[in-house]
Specification:
alpha+beta; 4 strands; 71 residues; single chain; 2 helices; 4-stranded antiparallel β-sheet
Length: 71
C-alpha cells in the first residue's frame, strides 16, 4: 500500500502519495481536480500552486466562479 502524507505550508493543504517510480502524486483535497507530480516536498508546493492557478484560469474562462474551484 503506497504511503500517503497530508502536508501544508499554511496556505495550501496537499496530499502526497508515494509513487512506485519515485517522487509523489500530489492532490489538494480542497481544490477539485488538482493533480500533479513532484520529486520533493518543495517541488510539490510549487507544482500545486502552478496547477491551482491554471485550474482557476481555465474555470474562469469557462464562466465558473472561484467557489467552484474549492468544492
Amino acid at each position: 500500500m503506497p504511503k500517503k502524507y497530508i502536508v501544508t505550508d499554511g496556505e495550501l493543504v496537499l496530499e502526497l502519495e508515494a509513487a512506485e517510480e519515485g517522487g509523489y502524486t500530489v492532490t489538494a483535497p480542497y481544490i477539485k481536480g488538482l493533480v500533479t507530480e513532484a520529486d520533493t516536498l518543495e517541488e510539490a508546493f510549487e507544482m500545486a500552486k502552478d496547477a491551482a492557478a491554471a485550474l482557476k484560469e481555465a474555470r474562469e474562462g469557462l464562466g465558473h466562479s472561484q467557489a467552484a474551484v474549492t468544492k
